Amino acid sequence: MTDTPYSGPGVLLRIGELFLKRGNRHLFFQALLANVQRALKGRDDIRISHAMGRIYIEGASDEDLLRRLRWVFGLTSISPGIFCDPDIDVITPIAVDLARTHPGGPETRFRVAARRADKTFPLNSGQIGAHVGGQIHLATGFRVDLEQPDLSVGVEVGLKRTFIWARQLPGGGGLPVGTAGKVALLLSGGLDSPVAGHMLQKRGVELTGIYFHAAPYTSDGAKEKVIALARILAARQRRFQLLVVPFAPVQEALRDIVDPTWLVLLYRRAMVRIAEMIARGEGISCLATGESVGQVASQTLANIATVEDAAALLVLRPVIAMDKAEIIRIARDIDTYETSILPHDDCCTLFTPRHPQTRGRADLAQRYEARLPHLDQLLQTAAETAERILL
Q: Which of 48, 184, 251, 293 is the most buried (most CB within 10 A)?
């Protein structure tokens, strides 16, 4: 074991709003650190350290590593760069080389952002910036612009080493997953519910997924598609459990007692009740869906209120006021879009007419449900026989 500070490629991770949570600062930081370690699992070529409210990755700065870190929530930005000795004669040529990687020509405007934690370093922050900036200008012809630069070069002088960077990539923002409790997400194969799950994770929520599978009326491919979406969300948290609920018996029973135009509403009420049973068994006190007002014909305010009537637990709807273009943009960004648009069977359309009820009423829904005396037992059986998949 050597105490010699590491020199070579690395990454600087800047921390976000978790530091506003002063009373729980230590817990939030530890959760973030654990999530970074999880995201980089299998990368035996790197070492993770932290100092002065920053997290550092030593050993590599490649694109695979940066991709893994992109959706670690709690990070505001990510900078690949170089660790070196805290010596201005070592720092300067590295900074010049990094500046040269910028694709712009001589018209490029740049600035040097210097930060000196080691107050014994012979130059202060302003002097470091002036010296390094002058050498970059001489070597590249780039012009200094402190207000609107095309390129920022960072020099962070620590007690035993310096970190130099010339790229600043966006982090996931938000809060570390696992710091804001647990939510049961009703996950389908569409665009909306994975985006809803992503938005909750960004607020520190740990998800459990619940998928309603209508086999034999829907294919195994529909199930595999949802598992693929769940894996994307699972990569961002400590543990992700997907429960696959056998929903066809419930649908068959409802089909035989109600006006077909009401089936979608009664399906969704049944889903909420089953999800609540599962959530309570998992110690979860909140549900979430991908419902959005007007997104499909059945998602009117009246219908959403009718579904809400079946819920005893709080139901979160993160995308409730978003239009399709916004949801698609986020889905593309979080890598769920290509999977979500694959053809799949939707259990909510099983046995339903082209034009569903759009003016639901809770009292009428309750009357329909009362026609099925064993409905509660059907829902309980569905919850108890759900397949558990740990991702």
A: 184
Prior bond of 216 cis (ω within 30°):
yes
Classify residue 121 as left (phi > 0), alpha (psi -120 to 50) or beta. Answer: beta
pLDDT, tens digit, 9 for 90 and up, residues 48-80: 999 878 899 999 999 999 999 999 999 999 999
* Backbone torsions φ then ψ of 67, nearest 5 degrees: -65, -40
Residue 137 and residue 131: Cα distance in Å, rounded? 10
Listed in sequence order, the residues at least 6 apart from 258 whose beta carbon sits closer than 8 Å to its beta carbon are 266, 368, 371
Cα gap 340→336, rounded to integer Å: 6
Q: pTM for the complete prediction?
A: 0.90
In a 3-state reduction of DSSP, which class is residue 61? coil
- Location of structure tokens 């549900």: 287
Domains in the chain: ranges and CATH? 8-170 (3.30.2130.30), 182-390 (3.40.50.620)
CA gap 72, 293 in Å, rounded: 30
